[in-house]
Amino acid sequence: MAPMGIRLSPLGVAVFCLLGLGVIYHLYSGVIASRLAALRQGKTVDLRELLALSVEAAVLGGREVKRIREENALEEKTKGKTKEGAKEMLTIGDLRSHIKMYHLIKNTFPYIKVNSEEHDHTLAAEHNVWNHVIPNEILEKIKEPKEVMADSITVWIDPLDATQEYIEDLREYVTTMVCVAVDGVPIIGVIHKPFSSFTAWAMVSGGSNVKPRKSYNEKSPEIIVSRSHAGKVTSFAQKAFGNNTKIHPAAGAGYKVLSLLDIPDESHEKADVYIHVTYIKKWDICAGNALLKALGGHMTTLKGEEIDYSGSERNDAGLLASININHKLLVEKLPDLQEST
């Protein structure tokens, strides 16, 4: 006699399936829960880690900048023109630094937005990842974690500031820079000088390895300005502070910010105020803005407005930077830009 088969009613099939799903859920719910928890954890970042990563990225890019300059392998070319019609130059140093810096940050925190001055896809991507070791120098100053939501972060990197001077072999002006903005506010700033191996870093409400100078001349400040727009800024500054105002033409926004601080490089120029009267890209100024902000200083538009680092890459409203000087009073002294340039 043939064996009897077991037949399940539709209800029985449904019950059996539900029981099976229950077993599967029991077996895998822990795995799913842990994966979801890990995903949620990945959406917050400790700012101390971002500071350490920013320092590492700036130094790594700086090594490429220095190596290529010393090998005289710049391969410079024009990538376009500025708003004023001047040539914007590009070198292999810019591109190699960009590749190192951009991919180190993106490989470590892929869900963070990163804006770089360069956007080249001809060079192979790097696969390097930061080791998540925060240097003691940072841990000693910022002892507690500072968690922020990843989607509130924008990282601005300048792989090589002062490219024209880099080509001219005016090495003192060259920097690599990283800035971390949270909800558009600059919080972390790193400025690295590749040819002197000096790195300035700071975190707002955290700490810094640099400090302001002991004194500044508020009544007759010495002004540091763009080397390529010195004439325009000179007349602008003299209307505000007098015809005898001392002007320091220099290159690189990073260099100019460091001129306001107490840094160990004695050959670095010193100034009391930094003024820029034409448009400037935010990757040029974000790191310096964060440094000054962390030290109690200010970087604003010429009208005294805060600069937002969450949207457009351009700042069209000029620049005024100071520290340990009445910034509001400086703004009030400035003439109308349209009438002065």
TrEMBL record:
Catalysis: reaction(s): a myo-inositol phosphate + H2O = myo-inositol + phosphate
One term of GO molecular function: inositol monophosphate phosphatase activity
Pfam families given in the database record: Inositol_P
UniProt entry keywords in alphabetical sequence: Hydrolase, Magnesium, Membrane, Metal-binding, Transmembrane, Transmembrane helix
Family annotation (InterPro entries): CysQ/Inositol_MonoPase, Inositol_monophosphatase-like, Inositol_monophosphatase_CS
Main location: membrane
Keyword Magnesium: yes
GO cellular component, one term: membrane
Family: Belongs to the inositol monophosphatase superfamily.
Stated name of the protein: inositol-phosphate phosphatase
